[in-house]
Amino acid sequence: MKNVLFIVLVISLGACQQNRFSGSEKSVEEIKAEGPISNADIIRNPVSADGPMDTVNVAKMAFTEETFNFGEVKEGDIVRHTYKFTNTGNVPLIISNASSTCGCTVPTWPKEPIEPGAGGEISVEFNTTNKHREQKKPIIVTANTYPARTTVHLEGFVHPEEETN
Q1: CB atoms within 10 A of CB 47
Q2: Which residues contact 70 (CB under 8 A, 6 or more apart)?
Q3: Most CB contacts within 10 A, which of 93, 102, 144, 156?
Q4: How many domains does the chain contain in total?
Q5: 114: domain CATH number?
Q6: pLDDT single digits (tens) 102-143
Q7: What is the largest CA-CA distance in the chain?
Q8: pTM of the model
């Protein structure tokens, strides 16, 4: 009896999973008209447990530069840079997060969907206070892309403040 109930449960869950992703795709305008945008409304899952990977129907970010070298600065300076990108995928791009490995590097990113073929910008501020010598700061962008994370870098040299006695 337990085996029969287990099989029925597994079949039911499988049917729910198949129906969950069926239906027509929505445009950005349709999603916006429905109210607040949820990543679940627009993110296409390129990997499924029972099928091959679908890397065609996802958003794709193409940055004009993946590494920006800010050169040499003095400790305490604020370095600012804007990374420009284009959505080269087939569906609207939704960036859910952008972060770095420490609080000294703060990115800001577009919150609205970016249509295929359209561009956007991620602005970054790096506070060099208490940072010395060679610096390489990653900016990790999480979006409905495959793979889900894309990393760009900010790098350069920070000269320590002169010690006073």
Answers
A1: 13
A2: 79, 81, 126, 154, 155, 156
A3: 93
A4: 2
A5: 2.60.40.10
A6: 999 999 999 999 999 999 999 999 999 999 999 999 999 999
A7: 83
A8: 0.67
Per the structure, the complete domain to which residue 120 belongs is given by 61-159
Question: How long a stretch of residues is the chain?
Answer: 165
Could you tell me if 28 and 104 lie in one domain?
Answer: no
Cβ pair 140, 151 in contact under 8 A: yes
At 2, phi and psi to the nearest 5?
A: -60, -40
Q: Are residues 68 and 31 in the same domain?
A: no
Ordered DSSP codes for 8-72: HHHHHHHHHHHHHT-SPPPPHHHHHHTSS--HHHH---S--TTS----SSSB-EEES-SEEEEEE
pLDDT in tens, 87-97: 999 999 999 99
Q: Are residues 79 and 150 in the same domain?
A: yes
